[in-house]
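Regression test case RT-17, inverse folding.

Input:
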């Protein structure tokens, strides 16, 4: 227990360091303020209470059903896949991985150039569309389906292999320095905090020139860290997207068997094959969920009224920098505290000898919730901005070229005014939130069975966490339907 307390005590220091780093990142360039928004708050097809109550009942009923299903059945469903869920990462020396990464670096370099030299319109420049739509939204969803793509397409592995070979770093006894184990995932937490702050608080995260400087600085900092600490170690605990995408990829319905072949597995089964995450890994997973949640909350009429802003006369992002900075930190702190409280309380009720033992394993069960919110929050902006991305790919520098032969291609949002398409979108949004929580309840129960000596104790230990998931289901459905401004 005492070994885990320092991680929680240092939460404030971690947040402060992340915000300070983000301010430095943001201050590297100045530009006009541009809004970073998305289409949200679809009109519900039934009264709000119907969806909120229905979602809460669905998650609660799932928990009750799991309590009566024999543990051996659930263990058999997941257990048979554990042995084929290991070693899904590519061989670090695979030349194909480095070739793909080198190509990704070339594309990344061109995008940086386009951000500086191309159109200042974020919906016509390929850099903002690639970072915020194809990257943060699309690539996250792709990892949950196809596994750890980032291990192949990250823009560091190829250049690192070339430069480390030229400097003969790989011929030595390893990198010049070793990344201290006591840091855990702290560097990745700082990086994700800075990314979240830049996306949600910075004055103009969509401005192509500003984003180009920020992305270039981020790449340079991480590349330098890889040269100092080694690529494998830094990407496993320091580079926030490598850490984030690896966690998300654990949900993918694929694994590798003993012969190295890709085989289908039960979605989420790979979570059970993971070693217990450290306290800093717990904070990282919670931070990822808190970032997406705050992205939904900070534009609602309720939140804007709370910080004294008229949502119908929004004065601009410069007026909410400090409220949103503290709001993001408070969301992170509140969610981390609630999670720890529910897990520890459940373990104590179940009579566990070490009530802190489940913190690491059970946090992985939150990943389906994080993925569900990611999909639900960004699905409409994904549908719209993919069209803009196609147009930008045809004319990346805004010179009037038509590389893809699109002709008179026009972006359309008319499907948001048609009740049939809105019905489909809303049902997808509401269904994703409920299914994500159901998935999380099932996984958390499967993990709890491994933590406790009897199925009864496992079920009892899950009561507080299940209650939190029910409350969070209601919160998520409310976020997707409440009026938004800003």
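Golden output:
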């Amino acid at each position: 227990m005492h070994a885990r307390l320092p991680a929680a005590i240092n939460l404030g220091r971690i947040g402060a360091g992340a915000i300070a780093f983000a301010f430095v990142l943001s201050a590297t360039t100045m530009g006009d303020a541009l809004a970073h928004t998305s289409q949200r708050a679809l009109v519900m097809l039934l009264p709000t209470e119907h969806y909120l109550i229905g979602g809460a009942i669905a998650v609660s009923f799932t928990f009750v059903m799991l309590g009566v299903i024999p543990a051996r059945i659930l263990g058999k469903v997941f257990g048979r896949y554990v042995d084929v869920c290991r070693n899904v990462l590519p061989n670090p020396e695979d030349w194909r991985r480095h070739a793909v990464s080198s190509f990704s670096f070339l594309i990344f370099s061109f995008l940086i150039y386009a951000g500086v030299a191309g159109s200042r319109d974020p919906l016509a420049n390929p850099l903002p569309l690639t970072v915020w739509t194809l990257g943060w939204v699309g690539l996250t969803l792709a990892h949950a389906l196809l596994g750890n793509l980032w291990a192949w397409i990250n823009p560091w592995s190829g250049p690192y292999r070339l430069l480390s070979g030229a400097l003969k770093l790989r011929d030595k006894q390893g990198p010049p320095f070793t990344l201290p184990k006591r840091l855990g995932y702290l560097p990745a937490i700082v990086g994700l905090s800075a990314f979240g702050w830049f996306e949600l608080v910075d004055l103009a995260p969509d401005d192509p020139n500003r984003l180009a400087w920020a992305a270039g600085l981020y790449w340079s900092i991480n590349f330098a860290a890889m040269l100092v600490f080694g690529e494998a170690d830094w990407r496993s605990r320091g580079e926030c997207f490598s850490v984030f995408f690896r966690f998300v990829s654990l949900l993918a319905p694929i694994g590798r068997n003993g012969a190295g072949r890709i085989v289908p597995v039960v979605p989420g089964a790979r979570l059970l094959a993971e070693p217990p995450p450290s306290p800093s890994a717990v904070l990282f997973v919670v931070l990822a969920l808190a970032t997406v949640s705050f992205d939904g909350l900070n534009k609602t009429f309720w939140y804007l009224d709370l910080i004294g802003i008229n949502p119908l006369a929004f004065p601009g992002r410069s007026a909410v920098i400090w409220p949103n900075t503290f709001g993001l930190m408070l969301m992170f702190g509140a969610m981390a505290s609630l999670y720890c409280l529910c897990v520890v309380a459940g373990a104590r009720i179940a009579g566990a000898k070490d009530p802190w033992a489940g913190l690491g394993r059970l946090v992985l069960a939150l990943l389906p919730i994080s993925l569900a919110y990611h999909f639900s929050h960004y699905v409409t902006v994904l549908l719209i901005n993919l069209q803009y991305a196609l147009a930008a790919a045809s004319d990346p520098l805004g010179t009037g070229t038509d590389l893809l032969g699109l002709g008179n291609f026009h972006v359309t949002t008319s499907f948001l005014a048609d009740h049939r398409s809105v019905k489909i979108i809303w049902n997808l949004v509401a269904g994703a939130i409920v299914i994500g929580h159901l998935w999380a309840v099932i996984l958390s129960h499967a993990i709890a069975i491994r933590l406790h000596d009897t199925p009864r104790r496992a079920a009892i230990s899950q009561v507080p966490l299940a209650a939190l998931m029910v409350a969070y289901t209601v919160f998520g459905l409310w976020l997707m339907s409440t009026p938004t401004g800003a």
